[in-house]
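Quick one:
INPUT:
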């Protein structure tokens, strides 16, 4: 199954028949005949010079993460496979779309697989791309387009509540990017009013083939529906018109700092085999696409089981970043047992001021005191940064675990019931003292500048410790929030919603 040679017409599942007329779907697979490509030669050269099975590079700066994606698209010769939870009609989305169209014009096969939770916002653009004979777009577990999405969601809750949360970006089956970023400006340090702090890992070597195998499973699964099923339901223009609109949109923003700052320097270094990758052992873990068919939650998933196993092996230090953190009682007990063994446990999540899901925070808040009581160090992101006279709201979106400064896990998995039971997830684990050590150190060193440290008072009340610019302040209510938001969040905490968070 290593090449694009199996093209078989398949019938799609009956559960979608009531939503729309289903087209015939062709299966397709990764291509392994990419040894003659620029990226293969560069990867092989670097791996040979460093006597390594894999090379890994941390993408912790948003503009770098976007620039290298565009640069890789421009250097693609055979295939581009992108799996994402969402894509927006903004600068980043238009840049990716235009570069994909140009790659397809060169003969590159493009497969774009989107979850359908938010795809309706850009349906017209995706349908326009899908017209190109070298581009195919599929949406995972789609909503119907003939009626309100809210009504559809309520009527088909057990099906539509389960989403594909995976993110991967693979070019010529030689280079891959795995992490937490979606394709939207807020994930790439756009300088707007709101930004997400996020992480990806770029990798070359044997792990890339495993990411491609995982992509193929999702692409050919029964839930991956060709977007042209919506042709008659969604007004859309031709690819030429859509491309012109995209170029015009970018021209309107060409004087902005964000667009000026995006370049392909990292992709150029990768192509020259000069990118300072870290030689490491790397593996990818991916939930099976049929996870969303399990209408009754199971106690674990492939990704959660893998992550628990590597985290349970911590001997001295565990650092976890999870923007949506709902450990439940078993999680509190688990982290408490690590502390009892002498492991330093540091957990970083969103504060109420930074979260974009107050309902998640309402449930997470139940566990703060128990975690602190058992010795866990708990930090919450501070909400704003000031730069060039502009205030930017920050939201944490990274999903990271570092273990004993010799192993790291980066992916799409949040420590919450939704990732555990409902959504499909993926991630990359890397064994490397150099990478894990540098990540752990940079995270810990940044905490005083970006986060509140939580603590319990003598009367067991929550306090937020602010340490910045040689000033220490103890805050006794959720920092930088209004009484109204605190009140609404408190009300949510009484709802039986924990299993959906």
């Amino acid at each position: 199954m290593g090449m694009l040679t199996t093209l078989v017409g398949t019938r799609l599942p009956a559960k979608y028949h009531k939503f729309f007329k289903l087209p015939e779907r062709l299966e397709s697979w990764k291509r392994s005949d990419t040894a003659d490509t620029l990226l293969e030669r560069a990867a092989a050269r670097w791996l040979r010079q460093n006597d390594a099975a894999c090379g890994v590079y941390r993408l912790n700066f948003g503009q770098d993460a976007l620039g290298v994606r565009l640069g890789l698209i421009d250097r693609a010769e055979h295939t581009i496979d992108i799996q994402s939870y969402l894509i927006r009609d903004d600068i980043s989305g238009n840049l990716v779309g235009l570069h994909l169209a140009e790659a397809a014009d060169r003969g590159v096969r493009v497969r774009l697989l989107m979850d359908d939770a938010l795809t309706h916002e850009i349906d017209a653009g995706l349908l326009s791309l899908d017209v190109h004979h070298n581009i195919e777009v599929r949406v995972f577990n789609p909503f119907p387009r003939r009626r309100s999405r809210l009504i559809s969601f309520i009527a088909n809750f057990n099906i539509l509540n389960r989403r594909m949360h995976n993110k991967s970006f693979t070019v010529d089956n030689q280079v891959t990017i795995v992490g937490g970023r979606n394709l939207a400006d807020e994930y790439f340090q756009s300088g707007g009013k709101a930004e997400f702090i996020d992480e990806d890992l770029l990798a070359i070597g044997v792990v890339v083939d495993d990411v491609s195998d995982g992509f193929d499973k999702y692409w050919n699964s029964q839930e991956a529906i060709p977007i042209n099923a919506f042709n008659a339901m969604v007004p859309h223009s031709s690819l030429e018109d859509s491309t012109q609109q995209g170029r015009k949109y970018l021209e309107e923003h060409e004087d902005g700092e964000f667009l000026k700052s995006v370049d392909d320097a990292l992709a150029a270094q990768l192509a020259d085999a000069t990118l300072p990758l870290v030689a490491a052992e790397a593996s990818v873990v991916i939930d099976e696409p049929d996870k969303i068919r399990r209408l009754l939650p199971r106690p674990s998933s492939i990704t959660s089981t893998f992550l628990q196993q590597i985290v349970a092996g911590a001997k001295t230090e565990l650092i976890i970043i999870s923007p949506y953190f709902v450990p439940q009682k078993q999680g509190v007990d688990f982290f408490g047992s690590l502390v009892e063994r002498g492991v330093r446990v540091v957990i970083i999540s969103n504060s109420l001021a930074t979260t974009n899901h107050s309902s998640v925070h309402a449930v997470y808040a139940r566990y703060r005191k128990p975690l602190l009581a058992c010795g866990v160090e708990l930090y919450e992101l501070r909400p704003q940064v000031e730069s060039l006279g502009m205030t930017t709201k920050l939201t944490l979106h990274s999903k990271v675990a570092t273990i004993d400064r010799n192993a790291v896990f980066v992916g799409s998995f949040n420590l919450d019931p939704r990732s555990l039971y409902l959504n499909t997830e993926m991630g990359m684990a890397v064994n490397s003292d150099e990478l894990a050590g540098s990540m752990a150190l940079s995270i810990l060193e940044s905490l005083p500048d970006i986060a509140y440290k939580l603590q319990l008072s003598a009367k067991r009340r929550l306090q937020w410790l602010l340490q910045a610019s040689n000033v220490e302040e103890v805050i006794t209510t959720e920092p930088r929030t209004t009484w109204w938001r605190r009140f609404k969040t408190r009300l949510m905490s009484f709802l039986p919603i924990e299993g959906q968070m």
